[in-house]
Amino acid sequence: MPQPSSRTSPTQTSPWKRRLGWACLVLALGLVGALTVSWVMRESSPQFGEQLRTQGEARELVLPDGSRIHAGPDTSLSVGYYSRRRQVILARGEASFHVRWQYRAAFLVQWGVNEVVIDGSRVETPDILFRVVAEPERLRVELAEGQLKVRTVTAGPREFVELRPGDVLIVDMGTRTHQLTHAGQAPAR
Question: Domain 48-182 belongs to what topology?
Answer without folding.
Answer: Jelly Rolls (2.60.120)
